[in-house]
Write the structure tokens for this entry.
Amino acid sequence: MAKAKPKPSSDDVYELLRWKILDHEIPPATKLNILQIAQQLNVSQTPIREALRQLQGDNLVIATANKGYSTTADLDATGVKDLFEFRLLVEPWAARASASNRLGNPAKELIAELSQFKSTTKYKKRQMIEHDQRFHRAIMLATGNEVLIQAYAQSHCHLHLFRMMENEWDWKKSIEEHAKIAQAILKEDPAKAEEEMRNHLQVSYQGFIKSVQPLSVFTQKLH
Ligand SMILES: [Zn+2]
């Protein structure tokens, strides 16, 4: 007799739903039918509800009074601008701080991260976002500033940007920019590390803002 498949845990359900939302398999701003999801995944409603609470923490799902759960909308032009203004405030500083701290210098980790990135897999987009998340987080962690680390984590910038990412995303360019940042940090050159991070974020901002809305007011370089 064939063994029954083990039922997915709430962590599995969370992971599954998270990718469905990130990949737009469940579109933005869509009502979620808990009963239907439970039937599709062949689990009870409890792990679904737990997973939805976790997704709420990621800002990928919102609970509305009497209406249950919905996926959040993709970022609009203002949302993208706000997110990059925040990143431009903290990340160039973090790159500078980590480049001048010998003990906490994350260069080795960053270089290892870059060499591990696999561009050959069919899940290139996922690999890229996971690499990007680890790369930027390692620089944040190297600052040792808990307030900053937490604020950055709570922006969930990678989840939200991933949702908007086009398939023809120029990942090679991002990898090159990361390599420049890692080299500047390795050489303990704070000014260069800051400059390369700022440049990387400006390039990234231009890419995302174009994909949301060609509003001239927002397509200018951020300060
Ligand atoms: Zn990056």
